[in-house]
Specification:
By secondary structure, this protein is an alpha/beta fold. It contains 11 helices and 14 strands. The strands form 3 sheets. A 6-stranded parallel beta sheet has the order 2-1-3-4-5-11, sandwiched between helices. Strands 7-6-8-9-10-12 form a 6-stranded mixed beta sheet, sandwiched between helices.
Length: 382
């Protein structure tokens, strides 16, 4: 075979092979896809801040502890899953409080609120052993590297209640059920009396001490004693609604304290001087979450900061008294009105605060005498 014939044969063979491949439908394979890099895992979610509260009374007291628990709930509403809160109620102001605080630390709480004056020493002891835990103490005066104190100017609410009481009394005798004779309570009794005297200089205030914050039986007995002594308008610095309810049963008038107590005895209720702990509790929690919390400080908030108010003023109260209350409230808010501005005299007629002078917080924080118009003596040794 010639070379030409061989080349022709090879060409025909190649064409036949190509035709056979096409007939079988074989196609060129696409290139393999390039594998993508795995997505980075999301950052782990921070653990929530564990916050615990110790309450001196039951949450259902309708007053002091109820107000604090509303503040706890305000934290939950504000920060959601960034926090986990818990509380222990009815913790006595005694050695058992130290055990409760140590248990709260052991459960991993990093922000702890002690909500009554008598927790001061237990908090100091536990805080000294728990430097990584932040402690907030209500109404106390001892601070530390990891302890700060906070309070509300309840005397502002007491003064506004006094305005109403002074205008509503017919006997000119007011009654106060006092809890424990510490400056906080003495200051409130005096401020209530000053408010009443601002509209009715003839009023006298009688006080019965129960030496406890929450005891409905003792509060009831004290309120009845005051009524028996001629008081027709009652005030309190105790934690339950017993005083208001006793007034209602005797067809007398009274106030709610710390929380709105209208529902407990609407026929007797004149108004409620209330505390809103929410603003401060939210601030303290925000500080802890953001790493700006610092111990050693003291905060004292009132009407100006939205921590104190008087609410649910009864329709029984005349318009002119309501207007007087609103004027004082506005003045407390903008600083144009000062409750403890002289001349203010004591029971002996001597100046406690001199004319045109304003008492400072140090004076108010150590007040241990009655103003003129309050009967009796502050219990000795307090």
């Amino acid at each position: 075979m010639t070379d030409f014939g061989k080349r022709k044969l090879l060409t025909l063979t190649a064409l036949a092979a190509t035709a056979a491949l096409v007939g079988c439908g074989k196609k060129e394979e696409p290139p393999a896809p390039v594998a993508e890099a795995p997505a980075s895992a999301p950052a782990p979610k921070p653990e929530p801040l564990k916050i615990a509260f110790a309450y001196v009374g039951p949450v259902g007291d309708g007053g002091w502890t109820f107000a604090h628990d509303n503040g706890r709930k305000a934290i939950e509403a504000e920060f959601g899953d960034k926090v986990v809160t818990s509380f222990v109620e009815s913790v006595p102001e005694a050695a058992d409080a130290e055990r409760v605080f140590r248990d709260m630390v052991g459960q991993g709480n990093k922000l702890i609120f002690g909500t009554t004056f008598g927790y001061m020493e237990p908090i100091q002891k536990v805080a000294a052993d728990s430097k990584d835990v932040k402690f907030e103490h209500a109404t106390g005066y001892k601070q530390g590297d990891n302890v700060r104190t906070y309070d509300s100017r309840t005397y502002e609410g007491a003064y506004m209640a006094g305005i109403i009481a002074g205008g509503m009394t017919k006997s000119n005798t007011l009654g106060v059920v006092g809890s424990i004779p510490i400056p906080e309570v003495i200051r409130n009794i005096n401020s209530f009396t000053l408010g009443a005297q601002s509209v009715n200089p003839k009023v006298r205030t009688k006080v019965v001490w129960v030496n406890t914050w929450y005891d409905t039986g003792k509060e009831t007995e004290a309120a009845q004693s005051l009524i028996n002594q001629g008081a027709d308008v009652l005030f309190q610095n105790t934690d339950s609604s017993a005083v208001l309810q006793t007034a209602g049963k005797n067809k007398k008038l009274a106030f709610g304290w710390d929380s709105d107590m209208t529902a407990y005895a609407p026929e007797a209720h004149l108004a409620s001087a209330v505390i809103n702990w929410g603003p401060y509790y939210i601030k303290a929690t925000k500080d802890a979450l953001e790493g700006t919390w610092a111990g050693g400080g003291a905060v004292w908030w009132g009407v100006k900061e939205g921590a104190i108010d008087i609410v649910s003023i009864s329709d029984k109260v005349p318009a002119e008294l309501k207007e007087k209350v609103e004027t004082v409230k506005a003045g407390l808010k903008d600083g144009s009105f000062v409750i403890w501005k002289g001349p203010i005299v004591g029971q002996d007629g001597k100046d406690i605060v001199k004319k045109d002078e304003a008492a400072d917080d140090k004076f108010l924080g150590g007040l241990n005498v009655y103003v003129k118009g309050v009967d009796g003596k502050v219990p000795a040794g307090k």
